[in-house]
Amino acid sequence: MVNVFSSKSDDKFAEFGWHGGPHGSPLIDGSAAMLEAEIRERFQAKTHTVFICRVRHAEVNDVAPMAYKAGKILDGGGLTEIPES
After folding, report:
1. Which pLDDT belongs to residue 51?
2. Are 68 and 24 in contact (CB under 8 A)?
3. Rounded mean pLDDT, 42-52
4. What 3-state DSSP class applies to 4?
5. Sign of CA dihedral 77, 50, 17, 72
6. Which pTM does this prediction carry?
7. Which of 10, 20, 34, 74 is least surrounded, with the fewest CB atoms within 10 Å of its CB?
């Protein structure tokens, strides 16, 4: 999934089930957590942009989140590497 969203694909949501949130954002089905947020502020921190947001809607599921460490994607529940698909 991470590879799809970091690619130059024209329709990054075509490969995943998703539903629209109450404020119109696409929310990926089966994710550990889904948020719709309103950007209040943004500022540069070297090579990153930091966003300060107001959460407008949140959904959670009882699944382990993904974690990213040292260039690898890990299963957040067991911290084991998730193979690329």
Report:
1. 97
2. no
3. 96
4. helix
5. negative
6. 0.73
7. 10
Number of neighbours of residue 36 by Cβ within 10 angstroms: 19
**Other Cβ atoms within 10 Å of 39 Cβ, number:** 9
The pair of structure tokens assigned to 71 is 């260039």
Q: What are phi and psi of 2, to 5 degrees?
A: -60, -40
What is the rounded CA–CA span in Å between residue 75 and residue 67? 6
CATH number, domain containing residue 29: 2.30.110.10
Give dist(CA 70, CA 85) in Å, integer: 19
Integer angstrom CA distances of residue 57 from 12, 13, 33, 50, 80: 22, 20, 11, 20, 30
Residue 78 banded pLDDT, cuts 50, 70, 90:
confident
